Amino acid sequence: MKRTIIYGAFLFSLTLTAQQQQRFCGFDQTIKEQDRKNPGLREAFDRIIRNIQSHQKDGITPGLGKLVNGVYEIPVVVHVIHPDGAAVGSIYNKSDAQIQAWLDRTNQMYAGTYAWPTNAVPADFGTSAVLPVRLVLAKRDPNCNATTGIVRYNGGSLTGYDTSGMAYQTANGASRNAIIGLAPHWPEASYFNIYIISMFDGFASPNSGLMGFAAFPNTADPYYESFMKSGVVTNDHDTTVAHEFGHALGLYHTFQDGNYQAQPGDPDYCPPTTGVCEDDDDGYAIRKEQEVDIHYGLFLRILRSIPVPGQTIREYNTIR
Asked: Which residues belong to any copy of the Peptidase M43 pregnancy-associated plasma-A domain (predicted)?
């Protein structure tokens, strides 16, 4: 167990060093808002997952959904919300080919076959647990007409969108509800809705800041979706959609509910320490060994989109 934690801390520091541009996920804010609107709903979902896992330990296996060569195919519809006048293939209006290649890379990450650069993953990182999920652009729309699974909308009709994109952490940009009103969900029981927006809160950088967020599986249908900024589609080795869809399948962040904004007090960006092992310096509750393994794996591997066994079990049960 000590070996796991040491490796985890070491790789965690490497990740921070490699990401000085600071890419953020908006899941924590999203789930807090969900908990405020629907108190107790997430706990009920977690109890259902634990119950399924308990049955599995007893040898009772839930019925499987439809598989294609042993893989769950998830139909997705990508709603591209572009600024007024943005040509297809431009920075805020990615082409169909770019979007397809983006999903192809994500599926390779889930399958454990993605070709990471040789210096991107340490040699002792371990073997990926294959996540048998494939994101597939929808072939039929809700009326059974042929579709590419990609729908484009002129966001310029929404107040603030052309200059600031979507308002999420500030009031700058078009609201989430306004965007969904422009680009309505396709039925949630048949599709996963992904929204590609220009930017969040007027922050134009394509590879830093808030990159995206996704709703938890127990979210009410009108808000079960994922929003991501346009840059993630073509950023080199970008893991945003793989990470966010993990949330949509029921995965938490590594240090869920921790205060990552706490002031470090020293230049190493670690929590202030007393040097006394018995003191809870980081304020993070002691977890069971299995939880620690899974949570470390979630940050270190889903960030690189390399799932670990505990994650694949939880995601399996969510799909079922």
From this structure: 184-265
Q: How confident is the model at residue 207 (pLDDT cuts 50, 70, 90)?
A: confident
Task: Provide the pLDDT confidence category of residue 297 given band limits of 50, 70 and 90.
Answer: very low
Q: Is 298 helix (H, G, I), strand (E, B) or coil?
A: helix
CB atoms near residue 170 (< 10 Å): 11
Distances (CA, A) of 294 to 27, 74, 193: 18, 24, 27
Residue 37 CB partners (closer than 8 Å, separation 6+): none
311 burial level (CB within 10 Å; 0-12, 13-18, 19+) = buried
- Listed in sequence order, the residues at least 6 apart from 147 whose beta carbon sits closer than 8 Å to its beta carbon are 77, 138, 139, 140, 141
Calpha distance 11→79 (Å, rounded)? 35
Tell me how crowded residue 50 is: count the other CB atoms within 10 A of its CB.
12
First-to-last CA distance in the chain?
31
pLDDT of residue 208: 84
CB-CB neighbours of 272 under 10 Å = 11
Which residues are CB-contacts of 80 (< 8 A; sequence separation ≥ 6)? 93, 94, 99, 150, 151, 152, 153, 196
pTM over 0.90: no
Cβ-based neighbours of 295, under 8 Å, separated by 6 or more: 252, 254, 255, 256, 287
Rounded Cα–Cα distance for residues 196 and 188 (Å): 17
- Contact between 222 and 116 under an 8 Å Cβ cutoff? The reply is no
